[in-house]
């Protein structure tokens, strides 16, 4: 009984590592900053400081008194290669869990028609560490408004170079469609967290 009580008190503070496809993902036993109630889902963006366009986006499930569960993981790029989070339309997504790395997911659509098209997840605006406000932040890909591949560059995925973005989080088309399918099946996340 005493062991169970100690585990319950200590577990939320302990960092755990989940091995996913050979990749170590550090998460906390329960969602830090009260991320989500047990059983709910959130997005977790892990910045890669050595290669920003080879970062990772995770769909996570919050689990009471245990490590959060990785439901899906995707390669994701953010920015044009710059790690300057204050560089508007160039730098990667601002924030880490220790420096204001929490975003509200404002909406998700499969038929967005704007500067970016198709499958999009709109993130809340965010001030970077120097106070510059970053706006028009999305998780998106390159596709036509109907979600299909086009013939012109902003609507056609050509490969690794397409992970570059204007500061958003970018997935390849098959991955963002898979993320939408899993989120629809399990429950749409309301929050995205950024760590590095």
UniProtKB/TrEMBL annotation:
L,D-TPase catalytic domain ranges (all copies): 66-184
Gene3D superfamilies in the record: L,D-transpeptidase catalytic domain-like
Cleavable signal peptide: 1-31
SUPFAM superfamilies named in the record: L,D-transpeptidase catalytic domain-like
GO biological processes: cell wall organization; peptidoglycan biosynthetic process; regulation of cell shape
Coiled-coil region(s): none
Name of this protein: L,D-TPase catalytic domain-containing protein
Species per Swiss-Prot/TrEMBL record: Streptomyces caelestis
